Automatic annotation (TrEMBL):
InterPro entries: Leu-rich_rpt, Leu-rich_rpt_typical-subtyp, LRR_dom_sf, LRRNT, SLRP. The lineage of its organism: Eukaryota, Metazoa, Chordata, Craniata, Vertebrata. Keywords: Glycoprotein, Leucine-rich repeat, Repeat, Signal. This is Wu:fc23c09. GO terms for cellular component: extracellular space. Coiled coil: none annotated. Residues 1-87 are annotated as: Disordered. Residues 52-87 have a biased composition (Basic residues). Residues 24-50 have a biased composition (Polar residues). Residues 1-20 have a biased composition (Basic and acidic residues). Residues 102-134 form the LRRNT domain. It holds the Pfam family LRR_8.
Length: 403
């Protein structure tokens, strides 16, 4: 027996509403008929979302935010003071030069040593770290130093500019603002005079192989603490302008003076009494009256034109230890050498004999000398005629070279 299926019942509300409206003399618009949804439609409705999610255009939103930020930044930059803007630009994040860990690309840096030698550069590289202590710039083509470039290097102690193309005008005012500079090498350049703006802290200055022909006291007034001065291979001579007497007197602490290979005809007078080493090799000196240099220990007079040494010529040098008279024209052995002398070199002269009292001190024939080394190679000494008592004043074990 077949059971009747349930049909969806239609809810008839229209008739009731019409009757009620007729009683109240009111009219209502036709009402839609409501039906019960089927199971299939209920399933579809349950699985389908009520509304679709709205897509957000994030790229346009980001562009809007960026434009807003740019407008704000431009507005802030306009209102900012110029000094503050400059300060921001030169911070290490934007401007890496001069920082402790920066090194110019053409150089090599090792700790606080900056090595820029043999690079063919024509100027001092930009960006050397401010904390650099040793800066090496030799063997380049540097012909000028930018004004005030070195003033900020408060830690620099050693600056080497050897073998470049620097002239007097190119270095004017370049070094006076370097407060800690102790050693300055300007050898093998094109300088014609000693710089007059040297730093007060300077202890060693090398000006060898330049074209120096003039020197004044004003050059040394700024660096009284100078210990080593090397002026070899220049054109300095004895004269009122070239090398006047007492021109070096302001250097009251000078220890070493090198005047090799210049045009001196006599030993300069008025040298600082503090000098311990004096080198005068390769000049035109014929005789040497010394002023009292009570601290002089090393004296180099090789390759001059000395043909005779007066008796007692070295009396004013009480602590002289080494004496070099090689490559001169001496015909006699110098007499009464300083008692404290340890070594004397007399090679390549024209000495023919050694007198009996050559190594005795003063007028006492038995006063022993402190010499331990005597060099007499390449002379005209006839060993067959050599006096047996010639070396009697030498004490202890000495070395005498004849060949």
């Amino acid at each position: 027996m077949t059971q009747p299926t349930d049909k969806p019942k239609t809810v008839k509300l229209v008739e009731n509403d019409t009757k009620l409206a007729a009683k109240q003399n009111k009219t209502f618009p036709p009402q839609p008929q409501l039906t019960r949804p089927s199971a299939k439609s209920q399933l579809t409705t349950a699985n389908t979302p009520l509304t679709k999610p709205r897509k957000i255009n994030r790229s346009s939103k980001n562009k809007t935010i960026r434009k807003t930020k740019e407008k704000k930044r431009k507005k802030d930059n306009k209102t900012q003071k110029p000094s503050k803007r400059k300060k921001e630009v030169t911070t290490s994040a934007y401007f890496p030069y001069f920082t402790d860990n920066y090194c110019p690309p053409e150089c090599a840096c090792y700790g606080r040593v900056v090595q820029c030698s043999d690079k063919g550069m024509d100027k001092v590289p930009y960006g050397i770290p401010y904390n650099a202590r040793y800066v090496l710039l030799m063997n380049n083509h540097i012909n000028s130093i930018q004004l005030d470039l070195l003033n900020e290097y408060v830690s620099m102690e050693f600056l080497v500019l050897s073998n470049n193309l620097l002239t007097d005008g190119a270095i004017e005012g370049a070094f006076e603002g370097v407060p800690a500079l102790k050693r300055l090498y300007l050898d093998r350049n094109l300088l014609e005079s000693v710089p007059t703006d040297l730093p007060f802290s300077l202890e060693e200055l090398r000006l060898d192989n330049n074209q120096l022909g003039v020197m004044s006291e004003a050059a040394w007034a700024r660096c009284p603490g100078l210990l080593v001065l090397s002026l070899s291979n220049n054109s300095l001579g004895n004269g009122s302008e070239s090398l006047p007497n007492t021109v070096l007197s302001p250097l009251c602490n000078l220890r070493t003076l090198n005047l090799d290979y210049n045009q001196l005809t006599s030993v300069p007078l008025g040298l600082p009494l503090s000098i311990k080493e004096l080198y005068l090799k390769g000049n035109l000196i014929e005789q040497f009256p010394f002023s009292s240099l009570k601290n002089l220990e090393h004296l180099g007079l090789a390759r001059n034109k000395i043909f005779k040494v007066a008796i007692g010529a070295f009396r004013t040098l009480p602590v002289l230890h080494q004496l070099d008279l090689c490559h001169n024209t001496l015909r006699q052995m110098p007499r009464q050498l300083p008692q404290g002398l340890h070594s004397v070199a007399l090679t390549h002269n024209k000495i023919q004999s050694v007198p009996r009292d050559a190594f005795c001190w003063g007028n006492r024939s038995l006063s022993l000398s402190g010499l331990v080394r005597v060099q007499l190679e390449h002379n005209l000494i006839d060993m067959g005629k050599l006096d047996a008592q010639a070396f009697r004043c030498l004490r202890g074990f000495q070395v005498v070279h004849f060949y």
